[in-house]
Amino acid sequence: MSSDIHLENKVAIVTGASRGIGEAIAKSFARNGAKVVLAARKLEGLERVRDEIQGAGGKALAVACHAGEPDQIDALVARTIKEFGQVDVLVNNAATNPYFGPMMNLEWAAWDKTFDVNVKGYFAATRAVAKHLMERKAHGSIVNMASVVGFMGSPLQGIYAMTKAAIVSMTKTMAMELGSAGIRVNCIAPGVIDTRFASALTTNEEIMATVKARNAFSRIGSPEEVAGAALYLASDAASYTTGHTLVVDGGWTVSL
Ligand SMILES: NC(=O)c1ccc[n+]([C@@H]2O[C@H](COP(=O)([O-])OP(=O)(O)OC[C@H]3O[C@@H](n4cnc5c(N)ncnc54)[C@H](OP(=O)(O)O)[C@@H]3O)[C@@H](O)[C@H]2O)c1
């Protein structure tokens, strides 16, 4: 096993790759040798990322896919195999948080959407890629994007936080069940990262003051700072690491 961090000869699917953390992960994977399949609902953003990767000499394919729809996920995996011959790495990164408010006022439509994309989608993609890896008798790596809110009470983000706690749990059980097939399953729990997704937090001065006060660096993170963790976990350098959740939060949670 190599301790070098690269993805030469690997094919990786990254969901939510049209902006934010997913875009940074896809570009990092491509720079480090992977052929990357970029998935999100809207093709437009994916094509921009694909063109930037290809312009820098990398290989990428853009595929529109709703991450809460198991049929579309199966089609994404099938298309990846058709175009690139195999899948070695899956990053379940796309997520949604349609409801920002107290749990008592939640409407079921928001519950369903949040759990469909953030939990059912991750589960469906993990199963589809694991099935393919087992059929190929190939080793593989699955990286799930959770959040530090999954570890704590999170007023106003309670349903989203529940889905992220579920992903930490799913990661552990999948790691145990898939380890004998040589498939590693790990998780990343970011703190506040500067993306569109976090704009409800980053544009709120009161919340930002609290976040920065608890952070060892007194700043929020960048998507690239999460991409480095994903690259490590996806690569063979992490060959003895599975079921783990790597916290990338500038020290926020150690202060709790
Ligand atoms: N930013 C943070 O502070 C933070 C903190 C902790 C954890 N995270 C996690 O990090 C991950 C990425 O977040 P981000 O901040 O990078 O978000 P972002 O900048 O808003 O990007 C979200 C990406 O997901 C895609 N997406 C959204 N819904 C989708 C769906 N139903 N099906 C397929 N793709 C979908 C979006 O493209 P389309 O709209 O075209 O579908 C986009 O590519 C998420 O799992 C999030 O929970 C973020």
Explained architecture:
By secondary structure, this protein is of the alpha/beta class. It has eight helices and seven strands. The protein has helices at 20-31, 43-55, 70-84, 108-136, 158-178, 199-202, 205-213, 223-234, and strands at residues 11-15, 35-40, 59-64, 89-92, 140-145, 183-190, 245-248. Strands 3-2-1-4-5-6-7 form a seven-stranded parallel β-sheet, with helices on both faces. Strand 4, helix 4 (108-136) and strand 5 form a beta-alpha-beta unit. The radius of gyration is 17 Å and the shape is globular. Bound molecules: NADP nicotinamide-adenine-dinucleotide phosphate. NADP nicotinamide-adenine-dinucleotide phosphate is lined by residues 15-22, 40-42, 45, 65-68, 93-96, 117, 145, 147, 190, 192-193, 195-198.
Please tell me the CATH architecture by its name.
Answer: 3-Layer(aba) Sandwich
- Count of the separate structural domains: 1
Enumerate the spans where pLDDT stays under 50 for 5 or more consecutive residues: none
Kindly report the CATH topology.
Rossmann fold
End-to-end separation in angstroms reads 37 Å
Determine the number of helices (DSSP H or I, runs of at least 4 residues).
8
Biggest sheet descriptor:
7 strands, parallel
Mean pLDDT: 97
Task: Identify every distinct bound molecule in the structure, by name, code or SMILES.
Answer: NADP nicotinamide-adenine-dinucleotide phosphate
